[in-house]
Amino acid sequence: MSDAEFTVSFAGPLVTFQDSGRLGNMRYGVSASGPMDRLSFDAAHAALGNLAGQTAIEISLGGLILQCRVGAVTVAITGGDFVIDHAGHKSGSWTILTIEKGERLTIRAGKAGSWAYLAFAGNLHARDWLGSQATHSPSGFGGGALQTGQTLKVLQTSVRADRLGEVPKPDFAPDGPFRVVTGPQDRHFAKEALNRFVTDQFKVTDAYDRMGMRLDGPMLNLEDALSIPSEPITRGSVQVSGDGVPTVLLADHQTTGGYPKIATVISCDTCRLTQLRSGQSVRFAPVTAQKAVDVARQYATNKARYLAQIAVPRGTLEQRLMSENLIHGWIGD
Amino acid sequence: MEPRFTPVADHAVLVSFANEINEDAHAIVVSLDRAIAAHPPVGFIETVPALVNLLVSFDVMETDHARIENHVRALLAGLEIQKVMGIQRQVQVCYEPPFAPDLAAVASATGLSEEVVVNAHLAGQYDVLMYGFSPGYAYLSGVSEQIQVPRKPAPVRDVPEGSVIIAGPQCLVTTLTMPTGWSIIGRSPTPILTGDPEHPFLFDVGDSVVFERIDRDTFDRLQKDAGHV
C-alpha cells in the first residue's frame, strides 16, 4: 500500500468528484448529487473490488487527461462509449488498467454516451461537505470540479494484476421508452398534452447538465397556466415550464419549484437517460406506481447479481491463458 | 383538510393538503413533518416539506407507496393540528450602501421613504416556509404588505451571498453568489450555512425569524469574525 499522485493536464467543464451522494438534506435545499449514471459508477467500483459508493471521477464530454507523477494504481473506466489512451495504447471504456509514474491517461468522448467514470483502487482524496464528497455542481460544494493544473492524490493504492482487462457491460439494463409514473401535477395539463407526452417523440437539446435535460418536442400545454405553489422535486421529475417545454431534472436538481411536473422517470431508467446526447430521441411510457415498484425491485436484484459477478477477480493474464487453454485444449491439437 | 396522496415514481409519495398557498395547509405540513421524524415508517429515507405539501421518500426494497400512505394516514389521525412553535432565529442585516442597491426602487414603488421600508422590513413576522433553489435558500413568509413588490422582469446576475432579498410576501437570505430577480434591500453577515456538522443549516422549516439592524462597522466586524473576509 502506498500513495499515487497525478497532475490534471486537462479537465473539461463538469468533470467532478462524485461519491454515491448526499442523502437526507433535500429539506435544506440540497439535492443528493452523486453520479448521473449510478449503474456505471457502481460497476467501476465493483470491478476493482472497492467499497460501494466511494469517491470516483465523473467525466463529461469535455474529457480528462491525467499524468501520473508518483506511484502506480489500478483504475476502472466505465460509463458511456469513451475513448481511452493509456501511455499510447488505445482502448474503449469498460476497461481496467494500471497507470504508473510517468504515464499519461487520456479519456475523451467517443461515439456515444455523455458520462464516464474513473474509479481508483485506493482512496481518492477530495473535499467533504455534509459527510459526502459528491459535487453539487451549481454551488461547487463537495469535492468540486477538477481544474486543469491541479494535483490529484490517491491514498493507499493497490495494483491489481488479477483485475486487468475488459469489464463486462451490464446485460440487464432495459431499453425502449423511458418509463414514467404520471404526475404528481398531471391535473394541470390538458388531456392532449398528457397523451402527446407518452406517444410523441422528444429530442435531447443542448441545455443538458447535471441539473437537468431540456427536451424538444410537442408543446405540453397547461390547462391552467397559473403558477402552482412551489412543490418538492426529485431526480427524474419532468417539469414543464410556462411555454410548454419539458425538462427532466437530474442529479443536482432544485429541491422545490413552481413548475408543474407532468411525470417522474422511474429511478432505474434515469441512468440510461443521462447517457443520451443532444439530438438523440426520447420516448416515454407510462407505468403504474405498483409496476414501477416491481420493476425497481427486479432491477435491484439483477444489478446486485451483476455487480457480484464483476467483483470476482478474473485472475492474472497468465492465469486466464492457462484456464482458456485447459478449456479449449488447443495444446493437444 | 383532506390529504391527497400522489405516487412519485418508484421512490416517494407526495402528500398534499391544498392547491393554493394556505397557512393552515402549511401548518399541517410542518406538524406532519415533525410527526414523521418522530415516528418514521419502515424504509423511510427523508421528507421535503414545501408550501402545501410534503414529499416522503422511501427505499423501494423495504416498502412501497401504499405502506407509506397507511403510515402517514395513521400519523395524521393522531396529529394535533396546531401551529408548531419553531425556534426563533435572529438574522442581522445591514441596509446601508452598497448592500441595498434596490432599497431606493422599493421605496419609490411603494411611495415610502427608505427608512420606512427598512422599518417595515424589520417589523415583519417571518416564518421559514421551505427551502429550495439552492443549498440553504430558505423561503420566509411575512413581508409586510406595505413593502411587497413584484419580481423584476429579468434577473440580475452575480448577486453576492448574504443578500437579503424580497419579492411579494417572501423574503430570503442568499447563501451563494447567484442571479436573482428579487429586490436586494440589505446584506447579512449571519451564516445560514453554519459550518457546524451537527446543525449545518441555521433554520428548520417552521422556525420564525427576526431581523436585527446593524450598521456597516458592525457588519464588517461580524463578517470578519465569521471568517468571510
What does this structure look like?
The complex is a heterodimer of chains A (about 325) and B (about 230). Chain A has about 325 residues and is of the alpha+beta class. Chain A has two domains: about 1-165, no CATH class; about 180-290, Cyclophilin-like (Cyclophilin, Beta Barrel), CATH 2.40.100. Chain A contains five helices and 21 strands. Chain A starts with a strand and ends in a 5-residue tail after the last helix. Mean pLDDT of chain A is about 95; it is low at about 330-333. With about 230 residues, chain B is of the alpha+beta class. Chain B folds into two domains: about 5-75, Gyrase A, domain 2 (2-Layer Sandwich); about 90-225, Cyclophilin-like (Cyclophilin, Beta Barrel). Chain B is about 25% helix and about 30% strand. Chain B has five helices and 13 strands. In chain B, helix 3 (about 105-110) packs across helix 4 (about 115-125). The longest helix of chain B has 16 residues, at about 25-40. The radius of gyration of chain B is 19 Å and the shape is elongated. The termini of chain B are far apart. The relative contact order of chain B is 0.15. The interface of A and B includes residues 29, 229, 265 and 268 of A.
Order of helices and strands of chain B: EEHEEHEHHEEEEEEEEH
CATH top level class name of the largest domain in chain B: Mainly Beta
Distance between the termini of chain B: 49 Å
Q: Which outline of chain A best applies?
A: globular
Helix content of chain A: 10-25%
**CATH homologous superfamily of the largest domain in chain B?**
Cyclophilin-like
Query: Given the structure, what is the number of helices of chain A?
Result: 5
- In total, the number of domains of chain B comes to 2
Largest sheet features of chain A: 11 strands, antiparallel
Mean pLDDT of chain A: 94
How many discrete structural domains of chain A?
A: 2
Order of helices and strands of chain A: EEHEEEEEEEEEEHEEEEEEEHEEHH
Shape of chain B: elongated
